[in-house]
Specification:
Belongs to the glycosyltransferase 43 family. One of its GO terms (molecular function) is galactosylgalactosylxylosylprotein 3-beta-glucuronosyltransferase activity. Helix content is 38%, strand content 18%. It is an alpha/beta fold. Bound molecules: uridine-5'-diphosphate and manganese (II) ion.
């Protein structure tokens, strides 16, 4: 009799232990929130090297990054010239390294061209393809100096209109960046944009006759107190188009904010930014404006004396 009771007790205890073990196993599995953690736990069986683990971790980070960060709406005005495909190829491949980007390409043309359409479909990016022709009175003539006319006005306004018609204030989370097709971008500039609450600013290399233009920060407060700029540093915002990005909420709430041919030459950026913020409210990024992550490069116009038929260049 005693023996039987002891056996029951033993089996009962055994069952409890098994259930407990199983539940511990289960919780520890569900505690493994990340793939890299799981891989790390089993790295011996999987024979993973430290480098492979690092790569997995980076992939995982990127996936999370995509989930948690705003969409960067990169607005690119573009127009036909021999280097157009080369320029767009260069920046589209930079954008392929940015997981949370939506590229808005606006052609300065009466219609959407096959060249740009093909490039976009082959890019594997999330994109919107628009077109808006610059009125002839504003179009730059071949021999005109570049500063003589506003460039990209029509196209950037068309992108702003698209954003305002297609996105919802409070629902869509994003940042808007005006990304000219001929500049050079380090992918880090897009990582900086993820931090923007209102308007973020950073240095731009090779612009305004300087090796770089940059906001100048007050050492004590860390706020922008002025600008180092090759031209009119006294402008309210002496910042190149490549040197700032704006939170989508601001773009969607200030529906009156557009670029205009009426703005004084060289004041497009300054006047546009004035709709949204003040110098004191600017958010300095790129390590307190100590790093250059974007360059205002310009591509030399190539001499093209002949056209090979049947090749899209
Ligand atoms: N752009 C355009 N139509 C034009 C001239 C320029 O759409 O007639 C675009 C160009 O592709 C670029 C942006 O506007 O994305 C700024 O032009 P550009 O680079 O010539 O200006 P800059 O760098 O000299 O300020
Ligand atoms: Mn340019």
């Amino acid at each position: 009799m005693k023996y039987k009771r002891f056996a029951y007790l033993f089996v009962g205890l055994g069952v409890i232990v098994v259930i407990w073990k199983l539940s511990v196993l289960e919780t520890s599995v569900s505690n493994l929130k990340t793939l890299p953690q799981a891989l790390d736990l089993h790295k011996d069986q999987l024979e993973l090297t430290q480098r492979q683990l690092m790569i997995f971790e980076q992939i995982h980070k990127k996936t999370n990054y995509f989930r948690n960060y705003p969409v960067i709406y990169a607005v690119t005005p573009t127009y036909w010239r021999h280097v157009q495909k080369a320029e767009l190829t260069r920046i589209s491949q930079t954008l392929q390294l940015v997981p949370n980007v939506h590229w808005i390409v606006v052609e300065d043309s009466d219609y959407k061209t096959d060249l740009v359409r093909n490039l976009l479909t082959e890019s594997d990016l999330i994109y919107t393809h628009l077109n808006a022709k610059t009125p002839p009175f504003e179009k730059l003539k071949d021999k005109d100096p570049r500063w003589k006319r506003h460039r990209g006005v029509e196209q950037r306004n068309t992108a702003l209109k698209w954003l305002r018609e297609n996105l919802k204030l409070g629902k869509d989370k994003g940042v808007v960046y005006f990304m000219d097709d001929d500049n050079t971008y380090n992918v880090r500039v897009f990582q900086e944009m993820n931090k923007i609450k209102t308007v973020g600013v950073w240095p731009v290399g090779l612009v305004g006759g300087l090796n770089a233009e940059t906001p100048v920060l007050d050492k004590k407060t860390g706020k922008v107190m002025g600008y180092r700029s090759g031209w009119r540093p006294d402008r309210p915002f002496a910042i190149d188009m490549a040197g700032f990005a704006i939170n989508l909420d601001l773009i969607l709430s200030r529906t009156d904010a557009v670029f205009s041919y009426k703005m004084e030459k060289g004041y497009q950026e300054s006047e546009f930014l004035s709709y949204f913020t003040t110098k004191e409210q600017l958010e300095p990024l790129a390590d307190n404006c100590t790093k250059v992550y974007v360059w205002h490069t310009r591509t030399e116009k190539p001499v093209v004396n002949g056209i090979v038929p049947g090749l899209e260049v």
